[in-house]
Design brief:
127 residues; mainly alpha; 4 helices; single chain; 3 helical TM bundles of succinate and fumarate reductases
């Protein structure tokens, strides 16, 4: 075979080249929280099914759900639920053709992040 001369081609851009900005982070967090909410719903349905099956099975499920780890999962799920809700409102604003300029998009991203934390704390204090 003849020697093949390799052509020097530019490398594709990597994530280290790009500056992280809030709309990028909030887009990723929307996908992550959506998937995490599915996991918490499965845990909640398991707890409800255990209550329907019998007292022994419910005792096991209830011990897990009411443990510190279950409390952590449901608290983070509450945070994810509020974040996902606010991100949905932000996308409705985007779909209306508003807030697409960079400063407004960053403000809306910060509003989603800070608002979800504030609403989570308020919910935990009220409930």
């Amino acid at each position: 075979m003849a020697d093949v001369k390799r052509v020097e081609r530019p490398l594709s851009p990597h994530l280290t080249i790009y500056r992280w900005h809030i709309p990028m982070l909030t887009s990723i967090l929307t996908r992550v929280t959506g998937n995490a909410l599915v996991v918490s719903v499965i845990l909640f349905v398991w707890w409800l099914l255990a209550a329907a099956v019998g007292p022994d099975y419910f005792a096991t499920a209830n011990a897990f759900v009411t443990s510190w780890f279950g409390d952590l999962i449901f608290t983070l799920s509450l945070l994810g639920l509020w974040y996902h809700y606010l991100a949905g409102l932000r996308h409705l604003i985007y779909d209306a053709g508003r807030g697409l300029d960079i400063p407004t998009a960053e403000k809306l991203g910060w509003a989603c992040l800070i608002g979800s934390v504030v609403l989570t704390v308020l919910t935990l204090l009220i409930v």
